[in-house]
Amino acid sequence: MVNINGNLLEDHKAVLAIDNRGYAYGDALFETIRVNSGSILFWEDHYFRLMASMRILRMQIPMSFTPEFLEKEIIDLVTANGLTNSSVRIKLMVNRVSGGLYTPTSNDIEYTILVSKLESSFYTIPDQKYEVTLFKDHYVNKDILSTLKSTNKLVNVVGGIFAKENGFDNCLLINSDKMIIEALNGNLFLVKGNTIKTPPIVDGCLKGILRTQLIRILEKLPEYQIEEASISPFELQKADELFITNVITGILPITKFRKKEYTSKTSKRLLGILNTRIRLGD
């Protein structure tokens, strides 16, 4: 079952118009959300990121789009799919209604919610090699649109194809200043000694939900110093650890970049703290 504008439909009956603006122009936003046993993780942060993004794109936010309304829509869909006791991935998409060419005739919106089952109830770190490379064919602009979770993701798509064709697990993206900003599917953190760095939003990286959670955690751990600062490609090979974060996989350690191999001690510790907070409902 899927939810299209509040209507629950069987997958094979769910259709979008050919002139849907998300399809025709990438005029759409999405939130990727994790739900564990009927509990939406980090819901407040997801909701306010979506609202802020809609305002930036001049979308008309319906009066009904309250946190309570969208939360109920998500949980009702999870229940309708018989996944109340499972961990699931939710994709909530918002697009401007059809009409117009580049310039829309209306700023009103439509929404779609999809659900798929996940294997694990909590975040885990797989015991496997994970090698990345730099993607230098295209750069990400340093502007506010790059920080939004929009459907304009061609750099990520082409980067994913590049990684697959060349035997890598992921690529790191670079902005127009040649600074590292993120991986294809999540934010990047660099560990050197007791300092942990992550690129700042002004460099063009996605304002990730789990990025926000980890920064809050690290600010309360006196043994670490968290910095939101630009990361040059040269710093990667001097780091002790590199890891990627997103709300679906949690924390994913990078094990190799070029000839440098990394440990995952800090990654594993932070993942334990994160899982504990989730269990306690923090």
Total number of domains = 2
CATH secondary-structure class of the largest domain: Alpha Beta
**Could you list the spans in which at least 5 consecutive residues all have pLDDT below 50?**
none
Computed CA radius of gyration, to the nearest angstrom: 19 Å
The rounded distance between the terminal residues' Cα atoms is 30 Å
Give, in order, the helices and strands.
Answer: EEHEEHHEEEHEEEEHEHEEEEH
Share of residues in helices: 25-40%
| Major sheet characteristics | 10 strands, mixed
Fourth CATH level, the homologous superfamily of the largest domain: D-amino Acid Aminotransferase, subunit A, domain 2
CATH fold-level topology of the largest domain:
D-amino Acid Aminotransferase, Chain A, domain 2
Which outline best applies? globular
CATH architecture group name of the largest domain: Alpha-Beta Barrel
Q: Which structural class do you get from the secondary structure elements?
A: alpha+beta
Q: How many DSSP-defined strands?
A: 16
